[in-house]
Design goal:
The chain is an alpha+beta fold. It folds into 2 domains: 117 residues, Rossmann fold, CATH 3.40.50; 169 residues, Tumour Suppressor Smad4. Strands 5, 6, 7, 8, 9, 10, 11, 12, 13, 14 and 15 form an 11-stranded antiparallel sheet that branches. Strands 2-1-3-4 form a 4-stranded parallel sheet, with helices on both faces. The two termini are 13 Å apart.
């Protein structure tokens, strides 16, 4: 793992050079302390910008980078989707990233030992950084997307899309309604990989090696990722097993295994590769989409090509160094 040290600023200039965007709509399903006071007290010299409905993060950061002086550090308070978008911009502008966990799950931040806003600011003040691997995901001929945790096609993106359509019910009730709908409507899709065709319930492409017992590898496991860990759930079982495979908690997966609802090992194909190239063909009437870091990406054509490649040491992130 590559790491670097950045000198801590003087006490009266804490946060100097930092441009921090807050997405306070992240993590609406959980109760958390408002970080405003913590940020103001610990990073008084930072430039802080709240992102509102309809704002474009690319435009916000581009405007900040055009100012004199330009930020030396880009920061984000939000969930995995917000952090992945800011990580993409940190790569574009060659700036280190400060990730303040403010989402529901915070998979990326937790993998780096950032379990609170204070822990992330501690690393920032100490100048403690790690070089983090990502994946580049390219759909058709569009621009690459920076992925921090996982890319998925199949049952999980359809479940997320259904939940978002029912967002007026709230995340919990919307999730229950979406799951009920998925139990009736989910269908396998067809993928083509290396010239071979397969019918699958889902594919998960995780950044870095992941837990061998999981199918839905949504929780990133390591920082310095140089490979992709791919899980392909072949469509040999029921819809119930297809949705049971989406369980990413160890306890819930153990319960599902005990009652024999979890997919059989023989139905899960596991690959560790540097890149993967898929043609994705959903059933008629089902959307052409994929999800990365909780963010849906819908495609215009019925079938689409999706390529993912591991990019080691892609972004510098403020985090505790291993063993520190």
């Amino acid at each position: 793992m590559v790491s670097a040290s950045i000198p801590s600023p003087a006490d009266d200039a804490r946060g100097s050079g930092l441009f921090l965007v807050r997405n306070e709509r992240s993590g609406s399903a959980v109760i958390r302390l408002d970080p405003t006071t913590t940020i103001a007290e610990r990073l008084p010299a930072a430039r802080v910008r709240d992102i509102a409905e309809g704002d474009d993060l690319d435009d916000i950061v581009a405007q900040a980078m055009a100012e004199d002086p330009a930020p030396t550090v880009l920061g984000i308070y939000g969930g995995d989707g917000s952090v992945s978008r800011m990580a993409h911009l940190a790569r574009r502008y060659d700036r280190p990233l400060l990730a303040l966990p403010g989402g529901t799950f915070n998979h990326f931040a937790r993998a780096l030992g950032l379990d609170s806003v204070d822990a992330a600011i501690d690393a920032f003040e100490a100048g403690s950084t790690v070089a983090v691997g990502v994946a580049d995901a390219v759909a058709e001929d569009e621009a690459p997307i920076t992925v921090l945790n996982v890319v998925s096609i199949g049952a999980y993106p359809e479940l997320i899309e259904e939940r978002e359509r029912r967002s007026s019910l709230g995340k919990w009730l919307g999730g229950v309604a979406a799951t009920w709908t998925a139990l009736r409507r989910t269908e396998p899709l067809t993928i083509v990989r290396d010239g071979r065709r397969a019918r699958v319930w889902s594919v998960f492409v995780s950044v870095g090696r992941n837990d061998p017992e999981r199918v839905a590898t949504m929780q990133r496991q390591e920082a310095d990722a140089s490979v992709l860990d791919v899980r392909i759930h072949h469509a040999r079982g029921s819809r119930v097993r297809a949705l049971a495979a989406l369980s990413f908690g160890k306890r819930s997966a153990a319960v599902l295994r005990a009652v024999r609802l979890f997919p059989r090992d023989a139905d899960i194909e596991r690959l560790v590769v540097r890149e993967v190239d898929l043609v994705v063909r959903p059933e008629p009437g089902h959307p052409s989409l994929f999800v990365h870091d909780g963010e849906l990406e819908e495609q215009r054509s019925e079938a689409f090509r999706l390529r993912c490649a591991a990019i080691p040491d892609a972004v510098i992130v403020f985090a505790p160094r291993s063993g520190a």
